[in-house]
Each structure stands twice: as structure tokens, then as C-alpha cells.
Amino acid sequence: MITIQDLFWLIPSASVLALIFAGIFFYRMKAQDEGNEVMKMIARHVRSGAMAYLRQQYKIVAIFFVLITVVFAFLAYCLHIQNPWVPFAFISGGFFSGLAGYIGMKTATYASGRVANACRHSLDAGLQIAFRSGAVLGLTVVGLAMLDIGAWYWVLDWFYGDMELSMRLVVITTTMLTFGMGASLQALFARVGGGIFTKAADVGADLVGKVEAGIPEDDPRNPATIADNVGDNVGDVAGMGADLYESYCGSILASAALGAAAYMAVPEMAIKAVLTPMLIAALGTILSLLGVYAVRVKRGASQTELMAALNRGINLSSFLIAIASAFLLQLIGLDNWAGIWGAIVTGLAVGIVIGKSTEHYTSHDSYPCRKIAHSAKTGPATVIISGIGIGMISTCIPVITVVVGTVLAYGLASGDWHFTGAEMSKGLYGIGIAAVGMLSTLGLTLATDAYGPISDNAGGNAEMSKLDPEVRRRTDALDALGNTTAATGKGFAIGSAALTALALLASYIEELKISILHWSEATGNTIYKINDAVSVEVSKISTASLSDFMGYFQVTLMNPKVLMGLFVGAMMSFMFCGLTMNAVGRAAEKMVKEVRRQFKEIKGILTGEAEPDYVRCVEISTAGAQHEMIWPSVLAVITPICMGIVFGVPGVFGLLAGGLASGFVLAVFMANSGGAWDNAKKYIEQGHVGGKGSESHKAAVIGDTVGDPFKDTSGPSLNILIKLMSMVAIVTAGVNIAVTLF
Amino acid sequence: MITIQDLFWLIPSASVLALIFAGIFFYRMKAQDEGNEVMKMIARHVRSGAMAYLRQQYKIVAIFFVLITVVFAFLAYCLHIQNPWVPFAFISGGFFSGLAGYIGMKTATYASGRVANACRHSLDAGLQIAFRSGAVLGLTVVGLAMLDIGAWYWVLDWFYGDMELSMRLVVITTTMLTFGMGASLQALFARVGGGIFTKAADVGADLVGKVEAGIPEDDPRNPATIADNVGDNVGDVAGMGADLYESYCGSILASAALGAAAYMAVPEMAIKAVLTPMLIAALGTILSLLGVYAVRVKRGASQTELMAALNRGINLSSFLIAIASAFLLQLIGLDNWAGIWGAIVTGLAVGIVIGKSTEHYTSHDSYPCRKIAHSAKTGPATVIISGIGIGMISTCIPVITVVVGTVLAYGLASGDWHFTGAEMSKGLYGIGIAAVGMLSTLGLTLATDAYGPISDNAGGNAEMSKLDPEVRRRTDALDALGNTTAATGKGFAIGSAALTALALLASYIEELKISILHWSEATGNTIYKINDAVSVEVSKISTASLSDFMGYFQVTLMNPKVLMGLFVGAMMSFMFCGLTMNAVGRAAEKMVKEVRRQFKEIKGILTGEAEPDYVRCVEISTAGAQHEMIWPSVLAVITPICMGIVFGVPGVFGLLAGGLASGFVLAVFMANSGGAWDNAKKYIEQGHVGGKGSESHKAAVIGDTVGDPFKDTSGPSLNILIKLMSMVAIVTAGVNIAVTLF
């Protein structure tokens, strides 16, 4: 008979397996030929730019981390209102997330030149290298996440070994949850900084290069072109990786915490519920690896066949996970295994539906994109109007999908289809499990995501090193595919962020409970005075049902604190977007000025006789990103803390729920509008509505430029905002409780 | 000793007074000279176009009203799950709102020609006519609203005369609240239809006339120019009037219902609490009338003096209301009169702060507008990016203001600064009173709003009838002033909609309670089964505190139904905006085609030898608006009903709160972005950043065109959406209860 303790070893094993394969893929890729001297030089430029940026970003992040760790240490060791593990958990989360981003980006910058070179031979050779290099990021993210989770679980289980099991699990899981904040903060900087970097370079390069000087994209005469290619790496590889690293950890840890609470009465079930999300993730990792090997094309494959190959990989993994998790759950022997399995499948389905919906609204031959393209006949204003209109309408399907998915996951896991609140903990556990299910294919989906910018960079390399046009045509085919996977990947990232944030919101309650117990232990107080009217015995709190608990804290929608939290939460999403949009605008303006200066001052750039100063442009984007990322990040961290101090627990709940609901919808809108503008432009470039160079095309280029910060800076940054605010609330739950007391 | 019954007569008296003065202002205006034959002809064109549109709109509205009334009658008289007064209340609300819009627009279309003519003599003569004509709308709106409210109160008080007082008040106020839905639906059509009409004409006229043909604004050679002028009337006069009519009624009625509930235990206080909002409104009406007379300028006044005159009127009225309401409240003798007075002053202050914030972000020499204007140097894309960025950031102050205002109003009225929930009814009553306080100056603020489009049309008339350029310069001065008042008016409309919607959300609970009592009476059931786990005795429900009541229905933020309602509510705001944006896009496209056709087919238009077919353009805008207004309206009505059926009361609460929070923020963003783009363009036209005709100017014109549907269609329509959804929920509360039962 296999015990749950035996199964635990699946977690480190899957982690090590993922890391080993990541290493293999990396060294195999590096063994490939990087092409001629020009190609090597360009790849080196991009690589050194990307690494220089990452160093700068990590410096800023390090300052933040040191400051916050000091605060946490003070709260934990001097005031005793913070879990003593928090400072370490915080640092470890941030460190592993940063490491994953670093490895992913290093791989991507080594790979793109090699992909370009492989495309000199055949399309399928290019695909193979690009995709396997993307898989390095995917596998590193899941491998490191599980390593961190597994190690912490093991350490804490040993440390609290003499505690009674169900209480031990509650303590372990609520402690582990706090390491999510480290990952979250790292992700925020990666997404916001990377997003600003990439779009400042892109917008700057387009505005002066394409529009003013009339030179094509990726032309080596454009001084911002290297910065643009660097941007693809820092934004789409490192940023996306950090974002999903956070969702992945967040969903697993939140589910574990919810599981410990839901099955508290039956310790042997509780440990199963805690380990289930980790085991599903381990299973997903192994099966994703199989999926990576399923992505194969025969020599001379067409673009449709490439797409089919990628889809085959993802479908196969999803299908295998759906089947295998049923067996795994039976093996674990968790109560209501069929319901939990239903939640996993629901999560997988939500991911697929949101991906398909994103594809519908943003793929270049879809009705919405064609509509935008046709509105270009009446100029840029109508392009913008119809793009915004379509983006806003496109929020419907993802929201309905998440709503239906959440209700299904809750109902299936709790068996309480009337939502009476009696089985609320189990229902919320189901929501967490759905998020874990959705993210279980992450090793593979992240590979297809990272594949996009690698191919994009390969195209840039081919263009700049003036390879045969046939090579560029091949890299373009890879890139077109990458655009589709990037769009669906964005939908996947947003959808998983929403589910993860829901699970985090739910686990905030568990964190509050444990904080009250901690406070009671520290002060010897046995009555917890929530406000003038309500006092509760601490002993009742530890076993209180979630609905009772919400009642104590008056987290009802008519409490003005909750309502005001909702308003501020909704406003936060918009403020955050506004700040990042303006940041891109400002940084892009500096880039435009620099490019114009170089065109004017360095004679012979446009004739190709002199080399532009690429490094200066990379520096400008780096400085812009570095400078502009600080204020939005501070806002995201400070707001939940202030809300907790001013309006207490109900205000924080309102803030998180309001931020989540409107942030999710806003993120979908911005990502889809941006994607649709991009592909409307591509549709025109294919010769429709006047074709390249027509007035319609110019109008569509303006739409695309507006869409750049929409889809690559502000929209994706919202994913982090909604998770980070929950994480900050979770970590400062002890402070919230303390503030309410004194 | 004056009793509260004696004071009641203030309400009809103020109403009649307002209507008499509206009549006097109207006939005095009509007695003015309308100018030469050309001017008369143009005014006639605009008038007949506006009236033709209004007839079409009312036809569609009538169909909707008949259908909905039949459904209400069926629910009330056949299924007995609806208050039997609802069909009548619904119709009366719609009728009076429509009548106010009709009178306001008739006045505006008579006035603009006369304003143009008066400007041939002097600026101050023009201001006087324009402002007094605007006051006709303001006074008609408040007069008719109070007439309707007063009459219903009187009839219902007589009808339920033998019922015990405090119960009678609950029944009366919850019944009266349902007439808000009639006003709300009428307002929706006016705002959405009017918004689509005006922007289809405006965008169409600009794109072909200004951009393609290079002829100035309001040029008689542009076939869409009459439609554009008609649009100002149907969008900004009739639409704005209906919007604020609804807020005005909604805030008074919601406060009355909340007052009846809050003081239920003490009947003599309850009647005071019910009549207080109506009496404040009556007082406000009388003092607004004084304010109208304070807007006077001496002969030959400058633009600054005009602005000072308008501000003097509003400041004087606000100040007088703040003073006089203190005396009134003491006279009424309501408990905690100082707290209630504080809520009124808070409301007034919220209105002023939001107005100032809007002015800051949208006035043409403010920092944000200048920033957008400077970003025009790098083309239209950066104009759009910075406009969106600034609009999003501009949501901060209004949201914080509403949050602080709501918390203050709640705390002052309830005295419960810890928000324990013990005095929740009184606190929510305070929020309603704050909305009433904010709207108490409506007679005057609406006059300054309607003044804008009247001056705008006067400018159009002067241009088309080729009057002396000096006349146009004078109407432009009036118009510039009108733009500022229109921007602050928009902020005021949004802010008041948010406060009103909050009050409506709170009064939804009262409607639920009365529905349960009604159901219990009809079925003889004394136990109300809320769900599998919770059953409550009906006798307990009538006296249950609000927090208990929220507890019964599990309206806590962790109930998945509430969370899902929040998501759908946030999505609804975006969907609704997307639909209206696209509607403008489509209708504008038809207009562009028609104008191009006329330029091509009617020889001699551009040389001024042939007259364009103005009527055809008006017809196109009318047909577009008529066609496009249906789908968003159906969505707004259907969604709360479906949510009630699928997710019950918690789902509806979530929907309303989510829609309110994100709709409010989205509305502020869209209005401010639109206003800022408009004035950035004006700033460039004054000769900055290259001036008129430069590339920067062209880029700014594109920003302005995108901003048109932002600020005049989608943004303002959201005001109605957030109120209408609450109204639908309130009216169908009986159905929600019935659905939960069967």
C-alpha cells in the first residue's frame, strides 16, 4: 500500500526531472551552429543588452527586497506580529523566480541566432530549436517552483514535527503561502519593467524608423532595432516567465492552505488535501515533458503543420493529465475524489476556452480583425474606436468562462450546489484546484509562449545580417505562429491569474485565522474584539466556518468599508494601467528623440555606411524602465497595507475583490484590443483594404502602436497586480489583525 | 407649531414655482428676435431635425414601455408577485422624464438662433438668453420630478391611510421607488440614442468635412452640419436632462425608502426621515431659482466675467442651501439633525470637488491637456496613449472623493464611526441624503449644462448664416465657457450617479424585505426558506437589522455567487461601452459614406452653389441611433433579471456592486480622456505646438475624434447603466424572491 508520504517524493523527483531536461535542451541548443560572424555579432549585441538590462532590474529589485525583508524581520522578531519564517520565505520566492527568468532569458538570447541559422536549412529545424529552447524556460519555471515548494514543505514539516498533524498542516501551508509574495514582487518588476522596456523600444523604433524614415522593421540602420529585439526577451520571456511562475506557485500554495483548512477535522484527509495540488503539478510536469517530445514535424513541413504540431503537444498533455489525475486522485484516496477531479478538468477546460476566445478576437483572419482593418478606410480614429469597442466586447466570453468554471469547481468540490456556505472551505479548495489544473500544463504552454519571442528575434537576426530572403520568409512563418501562441498564452496567463487570485483571496481568511491564533498565543488573550459590537472567543475562531468568519468581520456588501474597498480596488486597476501607459509614452518619447538625433548627427546611417549607436538605445530603454517601474510597484504594495490600516479586514476584502474583478476585465480588454490591432495591421499587409503603404495601412500602424503598451505593458501587468495585492494582504494579515487590536 | 404635514406643502409649492418660472423664461426667450431669414431657416432645420429624432426615439421607447408594462401587469395581477402599483409608477416615471426632455429640447432649439442674433448686439445679451433657456430645462426637470414625487406620495398616503404609520411609510416609499425604473429606462434611451446620434453626426462631419474636404467646422457646405447641431441638442440637452432627472428622483426616493426603514421603530421620526429628502429638494429648488437670478453680467463683460457670473450663481446657491438646510432640519426636528446636515454638506462638497477635478484634467490650459498636446509632436499614436494614460490616472481623485464622502456621510448620519453594522440603516440613509444634497442645486447646475449646447448651436447658426466674424467670436466665447461647464457638468453627473446608485443598492434590501412580507401575506407562509441551510421566520425579517439580513442571504464576499456577480458586473460596464463605441463607429461610417456621396453626386456643393441634402444626414443619424440603442438597452434590463433567476439575491448584489464600482471608474476615465483630447486640440489651435494645420494639429484632431464617443456616448451612458441595473433589481425584487421560493 502506497502512503501519501511515499507519494511526496514524486514532487522533488518531477522537479529534478524537469531541471535535468531543461539542462539537456539548453546544451543541445548551444551545440548548434550560430551562423556567420555578422549573425554572431548581432546575437551578442542582443544578449549583452538583455543581460545588462536584467542586471539593472535585479539591482532595483534587490534594494526593494532588502528594505521589505528588514521590515518583515522587524515585524516578526521585534513586534512579534508576523510569522517568523516570512523574511526567509519572501527571499526564497523572489530568488527562484528571478533565477528562472535569468535562465529563460539566457537561453532565449543564445537560441535566436541559432534558430535563424537553422532556418537557412529548413523550417522544421528552426521550429525544433526555437521550441526546445522555449521548453527550457517552461521546465525551469515548473522545476524551480516545485523545488522551492517541496523543500519548504520538507523543512517546515520537520521543524513543526511535534505539533498535532492538522494544526501542523495549517501552520505549514499558511507559512508557505507567504513565499508567494517574493515571487509576486519579482514578477511585478519583470512584467512592468520588461513591458516598459520592450514597448519604449518598439514604439520608438516604429515611430521614427517605419513612419518617419520609411525603413522596414528590424532594419539594421535603425538605432533602436537592437533595443527592440532585447525588449522581446525581457518583456515576453523573462516577464511572462515570472508572471506564470507566480501563478503556478500561488495556485499550488493557496490550494494547499485551503485544503488544510477544509479538512481540518480529519487529519489524514487534511494531509492528502494539502499534498494533492503539489502532486497534480508533479504529474503535470512529467506529462508536459511527454508533450514537448510530441511536438515534432517532418522535414519540409508547412506552417499549418507546424501549428498542428504545437496543438498536438498541448492537447496530448491536457488529455493525459485529465486521465492520469483521475488515477492519481484514487491512489491518494482523497474524499470526493471525483469532485476534485471534476475541478481539475474544469480548470483545464477554462484555460482552453479562454485561449480559443483570445484566438478568435485576435487572429489575423478573424471577423473582428477584419472589421478593424476595414475601419482603417476612414482613418486612424475609426481604427482606434473599433479596436477599443471590440476589445471591450471581447471581455464577455472569458468572464463568463471564469464564472461558470468557478461555480462548477466550487460545486463539484463541495457537493453543495446551493452555495449555502456550509461547505464553503471545500468549495474554495475546489477553485484553487481548478487553478492548479489549468496551470498543470505550464511546462508546455510556457514553451510555446517563449517560442514566440525567440522566433521573432531570429527574424530580426536574419534581417539584420542580410540573409537570403527565403530565410526571412521561414522565420516569418515561425513568427506568425508565435504571434498566435503568444495571444493564446496571454489569455492563459490572464485566466490563470484570475483563478489564482480567487484562491489567494480565499486563503487570506486562513491567514487571518492563524494570525489571530498567533496573537492569542503571544498575548495570552482569549477574546478577540473585532469591533465595538462584536467579540469572539479565540478558540471559536480556529474552528469557525468561513461564513461565520465573514460574519464576524462584517464582510458583507453593505458594509461601507467593503464597498469603499471595491471602489478603490477598481480604481487601482485603472491607475496602475494609466501609470504604465504614461511610462511607455515618456520612455518612447526619449527613444524617439535619440533615434532622431542619431539620424541627424551620425552621417551615413541611412545609407548603411555608418553603424548606429545601438548601445545608447538599449541604455535609454533600460533607464526608462528602471525609473518608471518604481512608482507603480510601490503603489501596488502600499495600497493593500494602507487599506488594512484604515479600513481593516473588510476594506482589504473589498479592495482585493474590486481589484480582481475590474483588473481581470480590464486586462482582457487591453490584451485583446492590442492583439486585434496588431493583426488587423498584418491583415492589411497581406494585401487587403489597400495593402502595405496605403493610407489604410498607415492608419492601422497607428492602431498597432497604440496597442503595443495595451497588450504588452499595461494589460499583462494587471495579472500581477491582482495577485500581488492578494499576496501583500496575506503576508500582512498579522499586521491587519494587530492594527485592529491596538 | 409647524407640523411635518404642514411642511409637506413646500414640495408641490416648490414644484409649481419652478414650473412657472420655467414657463416665464421660455416665453421671454421666444419673445426675442430670431434674426434674419437665413438664421430662421437654419434654426428651423435644426428644430425639425431634433423633433423628428425625438419622435422616433419616443416611438421605440413607447414599444418598450408597453411590453414591460404588460409584463409588470401580468406579474402583479396574475401571479401576484409584484407590487400592484408598479405598472402605473413605471409609466409615470417614464412619462415625466420624457416630458422634461421634450420641453428642454424644444426650448434649446428655439433659443440658439436667438442667442446668435443677440450676439450681434453684445456678448452679455447672448449669455442671458442662453443661460435662461438652459434654466428652463433645469427648472422643468426639478419641477416635474417633485410634482411626480409629491403626487404619488399624496395618493399612496391616502390609499394606505388606514395602515399603521411606520408600515405605511415603508409601503409607500418602496412603491414609489419603482417609478424610478420608468425614468431610468427613458434616460437610457435618451443617453444612448442621443449619444450615438450626436457622435455619428460629429465624427462623420469631421472625418469628411474637416479632414478630407478641408472645410471648417459648421460650414454650411457640409451636409452633416445640421445633423451635428441637432446632435448637440438630442445628446447634451435631452440626454443630460433625462440622466439627471433620474439621479434626482432616484436619490430622493432611495433616501425616503432608507429613512422609512432606519426609523421604523419610531413612527413620528420615520415620517420626518421620509419627507426630509423631498423637503431638501424643495428648498434647493427655491434657492436655485435665486441662483439663476444671480447670474448677471454688466454690458460688455469679458469671458472671465461671464465665468465668474456662472460660478457666482452656483456658489451662492450651494452656500444658501448649506445654511438654509440647517434651519430646515431643525424645524423638521429629525433626530441627529446635525449629522444629517453634515451628510448634506458632504454631498455638496463631493459635487464641487469632482467638478474641480474634472476641470483640472480637461480644461485646455491645464498640465494634462498640455502634456497630450505636446505628445502630438510624435504623432497620433502617442496622443492616444497619453490621453488614455491621463484619463485612467484621473480616476483617482473622484474615487477617493466618493469614498471619503460616503464614509463621512455614513458616519455622520449613523454616529457609528466603527461601522459595526448596528446602525447600518441610518448610515445608508446618510449616503442617500448626501446624494440628495449634491443634487439639490440641480435646477441651476443643469442650467449651466444646457447652456453649453445652446451656445454651441448659436455658433453653428452664426457660421452657417454667414454673420459678421465678430458675432462668431462672441458665440465662440460663450461656447468655450460652455465647454468648461459641460466638463464639470459631466463630472457632476457621474458623481451623483455613483452616490445615487449606492443609495439604490442599499434600498434594494428594503424592497426585498417588503417583497417577503408581501409574499407571506399572499401565501400565508410564515417561514421563509432562503436555502437548504437557512430558514427565517417572516416576522423576524420585517424587523431584522441590515447585517442580519445580509447574513440570511449570505451576501458575503466569499460566497461564490457574490463573487461571480462582481465579475459579471465589471464585465457589463465594459460590454456596454464596447457596444456603444461600436454603434458610433458603424453609424459614423454610414454618415461618412453619405457625405462623400453628396460631395460627389450633388455638383456645386463645395463651391456653395448647391445646397446639400441636410435632411438625409439627419435621417441617417436618426436611423443609426434608433437601431443601435436597442441591444445595449436590452442587455442592461435583462442582465439583472437573469442574474436574479440564476444566482438569486447574492448574485444580484454582486452584479450591482461590481457594475457600480467598475462602471463609475470607467465612466470617469472615458469622460476625462475625451475631454482632455478635446481641449488638447483646442490648445494647439490657439497656436501652441505648431498651431492649426500643423502635423501636431492633425494628430490632435484624431485624438479628439476618438474622444467624441468616449466623452459623449459611452462614458455618460454608464451613468445610466449603474442606476438602471439597480432599478431593475429593485423592481424585480418580488420576482427574485418568488424564484427563490419555487
TrEMBL record, chains A, B:
Coiled coil (residue ranges)? none
Q: How does its activity get regulated?
A: Requires K(+) for maximal activity.
Keyword Metal-binding found: no
Cofactors per UniProt?
Answer: Mg(2+)
What GO cellular component entries does it have? endomembrane system; plasma membrane
Please write the reaction equations for the catalytic activity of this protein: Na(+)(in) + diphosphate + H2O = Na(+)(out) + 2 phosphate + H(+)
**One MF term from GO for this chain?**
inorganic diphosphate phosphatase activity
Which Pfam families is this protein grouped with? H_PPase (PF03030)
**Alphabetical keyword list:** Cell inner membrane, Cell membrane, Hydrolase, Ion transport, Magnesium, Membrane, Potassium, Sodium, Sodium transport, Translocase, Transmembrane, Transmembrane helix, Transport
Looking up HAMAP family in the UniProt record yields: PPase_energized_pump
Q: Spell out the family assignment given in the record's similarity comment.
A: Belongs to the H(+)-translocating pyrophosphatase (TC 3.A.10) family. K(+)-stimulated subfamily.
Q: What does this protein do?
A: Sodium pump that utilizes the energy of pyrophosphate hydrolysis as the driving force for Na(+) movement across the membrane.
Specify the protein name.
Putative K(+)-stimulated pyrophosphate-energized sodium pump
User: What is the originating organism of this protein?
Assistant: Akkermansia muciniphila (strain ATCC BAA-835 / DSM 22959 / JCM 33894 / BCRC 81048 / CCUG 64013 / CIP 107961 / Muc)
Organism lineage reads as: Bacteria, Pseudomonadati, Verrucomicrobiota, Verrucomicrobiia, Verrucomicrobiales
